[in-house]
């Protein structure tokens, strides 16, 4: 390993002086990752850590895959960059074809960018431009949900409901966004309330919000089908997405689903919306798309929106220097082919069932585990100070981060991902488990047993 600036020399630990300076608020020491193989991370000091969260729910085929490495190398040697204003490339076209086919033709085009936040920016602008092209310029508002996370750039932050991440930047955020309650049964459903009544209550709240702001002013409703970082793998109650889609249709607004974290197979189907019985108009994807081999994200757009832009006055007024990056597209294409050819979605479903069983068996009785929730290989464990009252830990405790740091201690050597914190003023600590789609049963057993020891 080349010398790392800021390394203090002891156990290869960084002091966060240089490369990690922007992470100073995380007052932990940084471990030096040397290699990643399969579902293990190897540190510079020789320690081996099981990767139970695919990094940040990114890894979808595990680490060190030669097929992907070769595809990227081949593309870099063939044509490393492409000015997408004039050119496309075979990997970009093949990737788009693969992605559209994966929606069963429900989506019409794929737009490839480099991060989930960029994908969200593009999604919001596409929605706005759609309404301009169809002669409804008064539509410029978005309705999203509290306690959500859609990315860190200003537009994405504005639709996000993560108050802690928004706080310092509030004056910079678009003010044409309003928010409704998320579908979060653990904290949102009243005692004795049926799923049907809960869905009805949330649907009425959304409909009222449309009425309050003026239904003719709304571009889109924005939501994550399974809420990742902000709520810890919170799945919606059955029927919720059908209800919100119906309200969007009633008011002529688009449905934007953010599948950056929960999509591309993470929940057991290629797209999480495929389990909800709805099809979005615009969808964002990222993370598992390239499995971490390159920085790739994207937007999938249906024919309604594509058709309007095709007939419209101008092309999509957007673009990034590195969008549709050939090496990124080559990586994502190879990862998606591996997932398809190796039938990994079936493994997500089977290993997801096993993980759920083991987590429930080993953790459900723990005095500080309030809830275990998720789908496929996307599981959140909500930590509470008091189980009887489900009282969260105080803000200052940073419990989810402490548990994740503890996992990295050599006694446990497991990477789990932190989530929550003080989101929207409501405390919620959870750890996220999101291993790669080709995880094996013995690795699931190790993960569940190790998490239970933390
Ligand atoms: N949307 C969701 C649901 C996410 O979880 C994230 C990142 O965690 C983003 C958007 C932003 O993606 P990125 O961090 O790649 O910009």
From TrEMBL:
Keywords on record: Pyridoxal phosphate, Transferase
GO terms, molecular function: pyridoxal phosphate binding; transaminase activity
Superkingdom of this protein's organism: Eukaryota
CDD domains given in the database record: OAT_like (cd00610)
InterPro entries cross-referenced by the UniProt entry: Aminotrans_3 (IPR005814), PyrdxlP-dep_Trfase (IPR015424), PyrdxlP-dep_Trfase_major (IPR015421), PyrdxlP-dep_Trfase_small (IPR015422)
Cofactor: pyridoxal 5'-phosphate
Keyword Disulfide bond attributed: no
GO cellular-component term (any): cytosol
Family: Belongs to the class-III pyridoxal-phosphate-dependent aminotransferase family.
Name of the featured protein: Pyridoxal phosphate-dependent transferase
